[in-house]
Amino acid sequence: MAIRFPNTNVRVSCPAVVVPFGSDGREKTEVTPTYYIGPTRRGNYRVYGIPNCSGGWMNSSPDAHNTYVRNIDQKLNGRAKPLIRFIKAWKYYQNVPISSFYLELRVAKYAEGRLNIIYDVDIMNVFSHLHQSSLASMQDPMGISGYISPCSTSAKLIEARSKLSPALTRAQKAYRARRSENIKTAFYWWNMLYNGKFPSYYY
């Protein structure tokens, strides 16, 4: 693919190959090698083999995992998916080498135990949870993919862990500023958290 598109920054973002056509993120194409395994015993979800980022294969079921996240999101009146997007945006804007699949299920699992989502509170809590767990591997809540690793290599894990502490500190400062009704300062810390990509504050 890199040979066919020599002027495109084709790269591996395990388990996918990323082809960033155009200048807009919506034009990005991701291709994941898969093979069909069969249906699950419960729920009749289709299971596929995908790269496990360690030279082997792992089971995956987009249908099952999407259902899991969707059910939590519906229970929380549509506030769980935006929380996941906030954490993924941090990964993207700060170039954190952590699996999007891992983040999605980690945040969904966290949200599963909540009665409500207040974004600045729960973004802070998610970063606290990730930091305290040192990005430990997690069991797939759907029982399909086994243990899910946060990063494809130990070097990437070390780098991802190093970016959690400043993320948590910035989220905490943004929350405290908002609690003190210092909204301009809260926007400053959100902007720091998202590497200058957070909407600007206007009086």
Observed structural traits:
three-stranded antiparallel beta sheet; alpha+beta; 6 helices; 203 residues
How would you summarize this macromolecular structure in one to three sentences?
The protein has 203 residues and is α+β, with helices and mostly antiparallel strands. It contains 6 helices and 8 strands; from the N terminus they run ββββββααααββαα. α2 (80-93) packs antiparallel against α3, α4 packs antiparallel against α5 and α5 (154-179) packs antiparallel against α6.
Walk me through the topology.
Elements: E1 11-13, E2 16-20, E3 28-31, E4 35-39, E5 46-51, E6 57-60, H1 62-75, H2 80-93, H3 100-112, H4 119-132, E7 138-139, E8 147-148, H5 154-179, H6 183-193
Antiparallel strand pairs: 1-2, 2-3, 4-5, 5-6, 7-8
Helix pairs in contact: 1-3, 2-3, 4-5, 5-6
Give an account of the 3D structure.
It is built from six helices and eight strands, in the order E-E-E-E-E-E-H-H-H-H-E-E-H-H. Helix 4 packs antiparallel against helix 5 (about 155-180). By secondary structure, the chain is of the alpha+beta class.
Evaluate the radius of gyration: 18 Å
SS-based class: alpha+beta
Largest β-sheet summary: 3 strands, antiparallel
Overall morphology:
globular
Low-confidence stretches: none
* Total count of helical runs of at least 4 residues: 6
Please report the total strand number as a whole number.
8
Mean pLDDT over the full residue set = 90
Head-to-tail CA distance between termini: 48 Å
Name the assembly state: single chain
